[in-house]
Write a structure and sequence with these properties.
Oligomer: single chain
Structural class: mainly alpha
Distance between the termini: 41 Å
Number of strands: 0
Number of domains: 1
Shape: elongated
Radius of gyration: 17 Å
Largest sheet: none
């Protein structure tokens, strides 16, 4: 791959961040569908919510890397 087509580290982080946000939204929709269904499986709901929380933690980490700390 030549230098013109190479992504910067920040660009790679932004792409990863967008992928994680999309996965988080998808899990949120899946959880909503299961909760509104007749009798949702509590174990499945718990697992999906745990995955969603783990994704949120990863999103926050990446956002912290992309947004520099400003010391006032």
């Amino acid at each position: 791959m030549n230098a013109q087509n190479a992504l910067t580290y920040e660009e790679m982080l932004r792409i990863k961040l967008e992928v994680l946000r999309r996965e988080h939204r998808d899990l949120d929709e899946a959880i909503h569908v299961l909760e509104t269904a007749g009798r949702p499986d509590p174990l499945t709901l718990r697992r999906l919510k745990k995955q969603k929380l783990a994704l949120k933690d990863q999103i926050v980490k990446l956002e912290d890397q992309l947004i520099p700390d400003i010391i006032a």
